[in-house]
Design goal:
The chain has nine helices and 14 strands. It has about 270 residues and is α/β, with parallel strands linked by helices. It binds NADP nicotinamide-adenine-dinucleotide phosphate.
Length: about 270
């Protein structure tokens, strides 16, 4: 059996990855900076990927990981880049070198970040681009799956904006959000296969204007708020208005819609 190590297994996409591996009887462990020991039938090994503490032991333990499904992330971009750099550095010590499967974001190579304004709004894409390039240059066998925004992220945005009396909406910008369970299925499929480089984008079934997504959220949350369109300045925003954050024509699309998600998860 393949020994799989999952990082970020308690996060939005990591949770369904872990649930599926457990329910499928796979041989796997989870690297966590907050958990240690067996919880709900899952073995957690404690390591901090920002500092690197415990990472070598986590990756080499139990005979060494053959595949790493990398879902760990931190909000600070520099620290997030360190997370992947530290993981690469310890994974390279293993023989054979493990297959690193990383979930990235659709648009990582298509959203230009050329100014402070771009970076303030869309620096996340630049950071993911840096991380992707570190993986490509790592010498490890690798696969990168670029996914669109997770439904749960849109709920977080809706909840934050719903606290305001008037909700600003980025005009001309669309999102094609996706179900984390479907992303998890695809990540596992890729992890069980050979290293594949950058695979086709993965997105939800429908692209919606941001206003429509927020209206759906507000309706489901029982809130009424006026939406005010705001046109974002900068090159990155222009690229996103042109669809740089949407899945490319050859993308693999999930089936679950935003409406179905909202109906099942009353926000
Ligand atoms: N959210 C989206 O809409 C979206 C869309 C496309 C791609 N992505 C990408 O998908 C990946 C996962 O995103 P997500 O939203 O699922 O993340 P998330 O919910 O924020 O979870 C990240 C996990 O990282 C782990 N972590 C945090 N600090 C750590 C540290 N110092 N050392 C080791 N692990 C640490 C945490 O697990 P422990 O507490 O157990 O350590 C946490 O559960 C990210 O790379 C993100 O860029 C996200």
């Amino acid at each position: 059996m393949t020994q799989i190590l999952v990082t970020g297994g308690t996060g939005r996409v990591g949770r369904p990855v872990v649930a599926r591996l457990r329910d499928g009887g796979r041989d796997f462990r989870v690297l966590s900076h907050t958990r240690q020991g067996t919880i709900d039938g899952v073995e957690y090994v404690k390591a901090d990927l920002v500092t690197g503490e415990g990472a070598s032991e986590a990756v080499s333990g139990a005979g060494g990981a053959r595949v790493i499904i990398h879902c760990a992330a931190v909000p600070n971009f520099r620290k997030d880049q360190a997370v992947t750099a530290n993981l690469i550095s310890v994974a390279r010590e293993l023989d054979p070198k493990p297959h690193l499967v990383k979930v990235s974001v659709v648009g990582a190579e298509r959203v230009p970040v050329a100014s402070k304004v771009d970076r303030a709004m869309f620096g996340y894409f630049e950071s993911m681009r840096i991380t992707e390039r570190a993986i490509q240059a790592s010498g490890l066998p690798w696969t990168i799956l670029r996914a669109t925004q997770f439904f749960e992220l849109l709920v977080i945005i809706g909840r934050a904006l719903g606290k305001l009396p008037v909700v600003p909406v980025w005009s001309g910008i669309r999102f094609q959000p996706v179900d984390t369970g479907e992303v998890a299925d695809r990540l596992i499929e890729l992890a069980l296969g050979p290293p594949a480089g950058i695979v086709p984008d993965f997105g939800g079934p429908v692209a919606y204007p941001m206003a429509e997504l927020l209206r759906g959220y507000m309706r489901a949350a029982g809130k009424r708020r006026p939406l005010v369109p705001v046109r974002l300045p900068g090159k990155a925003a222009r690229a996103v208005r042109a669809g740089a954050n949407l899945p490319a024509a050859d993308a693999t699309l999930g089936r679950r819609s935003w409406e179905e998600f909202l109906a099942e998860h009353k926000p």
